[in-house]
Amino acid sequence: MLAQAPPVARFGPAASLAFARYIASVQQPNAFTESGPVAVVIQASLPGLYKQSEVLAVRMPGESGRSQYQVLQMQGDATVVDEVILPYVSAQQQVEDAPPMSAAITPANYKFTYVGEVGSGDNAAFVFRIAPKKKRGWLIAGQLWIDAASGAAVLQAGRVVRPPSTGIRRMELVRDTKLLDGNPCTRITHVAMDTPRLGRGELTITEYRLALDGSAAPQFPAWVNHSQTLAPLR
């Protein structure tokens, strides 16, 4: 007897509207890379060597289109910075150097399969399985969760199908975006990757959007102590 195919989730009007809002939001400037200063906390480790490091920085959109990092505080093992943090930042900058929208999670780059709805009320989200149409750097195979009310992407999870050419051999990520009044305000990305020389590396990147005052200086949250300003992260 032939096995029955699993039922296909119905893509109803509410999910269709949220998906349309999501596609429209992708066309707008990215809230964390193109819309002003962002405080970035990077916690990284090499678990096999029991080494870890932490960096606090501010990322600003550069005139060339590539983000500029100003490191405010750095502590921990320098090996983790060199082998885990810097390759990740370099890989992110490769994305910025690529043609606009080339890595965006859109129908031009991905196949979408509707999975269903999770949560309820203000926490409801529609889940899609995503598969890249081509194996290009920074495209991921996994899932995308879309906020039911605003259409904003609130969760991305999966495996990078072709790791960037910075020596990273394998990369998996989970990116969780917190909303405030329907707008992204905080983004937490968990990354696991295989480094070229020292085995598994792990990162947690927490990004906070910062406000600007009249002088265009970033207004830091109260927890940020930026008395020690170090060299820019390259």
Descriptive overview:
Mean pLDDT is 83; it is low at 1-8 and 213-234. The chain is globular, with a radius of gyration of 19 Å. The protein is mainly β. The strands form two sheets. The chain has a ten-stranded antiparallel sheet with strand order 3-2-1-10-9-8-7-6-5-4. The chain has a single domain, classed as outer membrane lipoprotein receptor (LolB), chain A, CATH 2.50.20. The chain is built from two helices and twelve strands. The longest helix is centred in the middle third of the chain and has 20 residues, at 78-97.
Q: Walk across the major sheet and give the strand order.
A: 3-2-1-10-9-8-7-6-5-4
- By DSSP, the count of extended strands is 12
Helical content, roughly? 10-25%
Q: Distance between the terminal alpha carbons, to the nearest Å?
A: 61 Å
Broad shape: globular
CATH topology: outer membrane lipoprotein receptor (LolB), chain A
How much is the average pLDDT?
A: 83
What CATH architecture would you give? Clam
- Content of β-strand: 35-45%
What is the N-to-C succession of helices and strands?
Answer: HEEEHEEEEEEEEE
Secondary-structure-based class equals mainly beta
Q: Report the top-level CATH class.
A: Mainly Beta
Rg to the nearest angstrom?
Answer: 19 Å
Sequence-ordered SSE layout with sheet pairings:
Layout: H1 13-26, E1 38-46, E2 51-61, E3 67-76, H2 78-97, E4 110-118, E5 125-132, E6 140-147, E7 153-160, E8 170-180, E9 183-195, E10 199-209, E11 211-212, E12 218-219
Antiparallel strand pairs: 1-2, 1-10, 2-3, 4-5, 5-6, 6-7, 7-8, 8-9, 9-10, 11-12
Task: Give the structure's gist in a few sentences.
The chain has helices at 13-26, 78-97, and strands at 38-46, 51-61, 67-76, 110-118, 125-132, 140-147, 153-160, 170-180, 183-195, 199-209, 211-212, 218-219. The protein is mostly beta strands and 234 residues long. The chain has one domain: outer membrane lipoprotein receptor (LolB), chain A (Clam).
